[in-house]
Each structure stands twice: as C-alpha cells, then as structure tokens.
Amino acid sequence: MHLPRPFSRRLVWCLCALAASAGAPAHADTYPGKPITLVVGYPPGGSTDLTGRALGVELSHRLGVPVIVDNVGGAGGAIGAQKVANAAPDGYTLLVGANNEIAINRLVNANVRYEQKDFTPIGLVASQPLVLVAAPAAGVKNASEFLALLKKNPGKYSYGSSGVGTSLHLAGEMVKQQAGVAMTHVPYRGVAPLTNDLLGGNIDFGVFVLSSALPYIRSGKMVALGTTEAKRSAITPDLPALGETPALKNIDIGVWFALMGPAKLPEPVVARLRKALDETLQSPDFRRKMEATSSVVPLAPLDIERFLSAETAKYRNIVQFANIKE
Which one of 77, 192, 246, 262 is most buried, by most CB atoms within 10 A? Predict the structure, then answer.
C-alpha cells in the first residue's frame, strides 16, 4: 500500500521527533552505563593521583560502574587535561585536576591550547595548603625573622619550588609581592631534588606542598615558617599560617583538586556526577583518606564556577607581577 506523499512526510517527521525526544531522557536515565575513565595528569603516587584514586573508589560505589584511573603525565598536568578537553562530552572521560593544569598553566605557557571554557566544572574535591620552610642553617624560626633577614640582605637569598609556574612558585612570588622583599626563585624538576638541596644546605628556603614537607618538619630537618592558606590548616593546627604575620596577612594560596568534564556535558549527566561527588564529600571514610594525605575536603558544596573565576584572577595577578613565563 502506498501512503499519500504529504502523509508520508508527516509520518517521518513525527518518528524523528519521537526519537529525538526519547534520546535525551534515555541517556540521562541510563548514565552511566559503562566504565568511566578518570584522567590524572601526573604519574602514580603524587597528591593528585592519590586524590583521584580515593575519589574513583567512592564514585564507583555511588555510580555503580567501574571508575578507572588513567595516569597521563607530562607538561605539568597539561597533557592529561588536554585529553579530557578533547573527549566526547558524554560523561565517560573525566579529569581530577589540580590548580596547575586547570587555572595556572594557560597563564604562563602560550603553548597550552585548552582554556577553562573547554571544561565543565563538576566540583571541588579537596584542598591542601603549601608551606614555606627554611633550612635549620638559615637561622630563622618564624615568618617575622624570615622577613627581617630578607630586608636586611635584599637579593641575597633564594627559595626553591617544584617548577616554573606551579602553585608553589606562585606562593613564593605572592610572599615577595605582599611583603615587598627580594629573593631569587630557583625552579627544580620536582619535589625530590628540591628536598635534597634544602636538606643538604644548598638552598635556604623552599615552598612545598604540606604533605611533602611535614615529615621533615616533624623531624626537625626543616623549619616551618608558615602555611599559605588564610587560616591554619585543620590538619596541622600547631603550624602558624603566614597570614598571622601582619606583612603577609593577605596570603591565601594552596593546591586544590577539582572534578572536571569536557565542555558541553549534558545537564542531567552533570547533575548525576555532582550528586555522587556531594555524597562522597560527606563520607567519613573519604575524609579520613584525604586527611591522611594532609588534604581537607570542603565542608559544604560551593559554587565551583565562581571559585574557579576568583582563583584564576588571583593567579593572573601574581603571574603579571612576577612576569612568569615558560
């Protein structure tokens, strides 16, 4: 039987409309329907990797599918971040990223091709302060003595970080900016050589992620001059914050970890992931795991877009002040 042509066209249009309207809810209702890849832009064993693996276990429990950590190291996390930026926006390739690759790299390296608009922010996972330390031979015991030494000897002293354009580097430049002191930045290829040089007396000061320096602080091999967030860390309430020193009262910088997806993730998928993340952040077991790495999870969900905007503006100010370029 042949249908009249106008009727045939209407039938095709109706079938297409039904398929389109059914497709979106079906995707939302069935997500996730297969394993999720969680990209970490660093080799195994670092703070971002440990955060990603702990988060992956929790998300797997809540989403009901395997969550597989994929370590894609290189370029300060940028290679892994680029992989996620290029991924299909279906919720099956996500990033656990630190502020270096999400907010800082683009400001200091023109070769980084992705921007924040190439990601869908899902939420903040955890944060950890940095800590400014001195070698015992430097002869200073607190931030006030440190600043007095620098002002008495402008340009004589150096501080080390794990590399140009890292949050550790920016923290050192923020100290210089706010206190009006001069010291030379010495970039190292990671934390291990910086640690060796500071313990060996080859450099007087350094900026570390708290978890990296804490064993040496506790053993007396490093002197903690202050953590770098606005208040003392709940993990180390015995260590002063740099902000307690009047000349450094506005110091507030650390390392944070966020869950991100590619741009244009469907809203139902974003909502599903945010629900799973919020439940994870309330998990006592997850909090204990993060505390074991000297990280703290947020006490309540925050506006991740506003947070990222404020952090990027802060980093841009420091980068411009110090003229940091890679």
Answer: 77
**With contact defined as beta carbons under 8 Å apart, do 316 and 94 qualify?**
no
The phi and psi torsions of 97 (rounded to 5 degrees) equal -120, 155
Q: What is the pLDDT of residues 55-68, one digit of tens each?
A: 999 999 999 999 99
Whole-structure pTM value: 0.87
Q: Is 137 helix (H, G, I), strand (E, B) or coil?
A: helix
- Domains of the chain, with CATH numbers? 35-127+255-322 (3.40.190.150), 129-248 (3.40.190.10)
pLDDT tens per residue across span 87-145: 999 999 999 999 999 999 999 999 999 999 999 999 999 999 999 999 999 999 999 99
User: How many other CB atoms sit within 10 Å of the CB of residue 218?
Assistant: 11
User: Could you give the CA distance from residue 2 to residue 88 in angstroms, rounded to a whole number?
Assistant: 42
- Look over the chain and give the mean of its residue pLDDT values, rounded to a whole number: 91
Burial, 212: exposed, middle or buried (Cβ in 10 Å; 0-12, 13-18, 19+)? buried
Q: Would the CA dihedral through 321, 130, 286, 93 be positive or negative?
A: positive
